[in-house]
Amino acid sequence: MRSHSRKQVLLSVLAAAVLSGVMMVDAVAQSASARSEERRSSRSSSGANANQNVMFPDATREAPGIRASSRLGRKLQRMIDAFNKAEYPQTRALADEVLADDGANAYEKSLAGQLAGQAAYSLDDEAAAERYLEQALSLNGLDNNGHYQSMLMLAQLQLQDETQQQAGLALLDRYLTETRSQKPQDLVLKGQALYQMQRYQEAIPLLRQAIDASSEPNDSWNQLLMVNYLESDQPDQAVSVAEQLATRRPDDKSAQLNLASVYMQAEKPQQAVQVLERLRASGQLTEEREFRQLYVTYANMDGHENDVISVINEGMRKGALKPDYQSYLALAQSYYYSDRIPQAIENWEKAAPLSDNGETYLNLARVLWQEDRIPEAKQAAQHALDRGVRNPADAQRIINLK
After folding, report:
1. Side-chain-side CA neighbours of residue 402 (13 Å)
2. How far apart are CA 363 and CA 139, in angstroms?
3. What's phi and psi for 185, nearest 5 deg?
4. What is the Cα–Cα distance from 7 to 239, expressed in whole angstroms?
5. Rounded-to-integer distance, Cα 267 and Cα 296, Å
6. 20 to 30 A Cα–Cα from 252, which one of 133, 135, 281, 313?
């Protein structure tokens, strides 16, 4: 089963650190644009592009040096032209003719497999894309640019398929070994693959190497490194990376929200609150998840009931927080523990009908009973029974009060 967008050749990792319902906000993914550019630069890796750049100067493979025959030269050019014009069905049709031609040489068939694979992928036929690319590689007729770009694309497609991840990683390792590539983006790609396979400790040194080797490392690489640190129970290292990102991008709200999430993962709620309150003070908390992240953080700290109330009320007033079960329940609990019982009851009364069961009604009944509001307590207890509770006897005792 494919777990990523069909239009994204690169692996995409949503690195989410979830704590009390708060999700890290940034997708941690290497930009697909760089890979797309490489594919565009290599897609005409045929005799028609003799002056192309050598992309893999350290490759151990000796290119076969086969060229197109005069007999198929015109058809190959039509195939290349169709591909460059994004006429993908026509590209595949012409490529299939070349692949079926017993007189076509290894280069011609390899080129057909390469372009047909990319065309099939663009047509959302990934299974066919893999078959074509496998043909291109097995025929071994392309120059190193085309050969290794096809290998890399096939590895990426396999890595996106949970049933083929081991094969994809093996092919990626072969690519790295044969090309001797030390390109940061290639190292990050393997780091992403290892992350997806939950091999976090192995991913970390690759990501560190890629970041250290790049003069301008992509922030998403640091984010991916940060998540691997978290997943491998190294929160202090994750905090260090998150702080660096937030310092480098002080006006980037996503970087600041991620920093707050990492602080929570590292059990540093006070630092998380400081980050979120700076955003709140500057009016940058605008979305439901952002207000929820702040009030959940406060709720996990002792003695901050008033802060929970303030954040939720502000979020509701601004329309960012929905008047839903979670918000009303958090308000009810915070009012209760700050000895504002009437407000607590009011919010439990709002939360209870929104609950999936009767437990909230039962809590309301208990508080009403404590406040000597017996008729209301009995009514709430009956609602609790009607909706279902773990301990019906508790509700029945309130109903039976004299």
Report:
1. 0
2. 71
3. -65, -30
4. 33
5. 13
6. 313
Please return the burial class of 73, using the count of CB atoms within 10 Å of its CB with bins 0-12, 13-18 and 19+.
middle
One DSSP character per residue, 346-399 reads: HHHHHHGGGSSSSHHHHHHHHHHHHTT-HHHHHHHHHHHHHH--S-HHHHHHHH
Q: What is the pLDDT of residues 342-372, one digit of tens each?
A: 999 999 999 999 999 999 999 999 999 999 9
> DSSP H helical segments within 46-101, as ranges?
73-84, 88-100
Q: Report the distance separating Cα 333 and Cα 309, nearest Å.
A: 10
Q: Are 9 and 149 in contact (CB under 8 A)?
A: no
Mean pLDDT of the chain: 88
Asked if 61 and 89 count as a contact pair (C-beta separation under 8 A), the reply is no
CB-count exposure of residue 136 (10 Å: 0-12, 13-18, 19+): buried
- pLDDT of 30 > 80? The answer is no
Residue linked to tokens 């050019």: 77
Token pair in block for residue 399: 């109903």
The tokens for 173 are 């390792």
In this structure, which long-range contacts are made by residues 376-379, counting pairs with CB atoms below 8 Å and at least 24 apart in sequence?
377/401
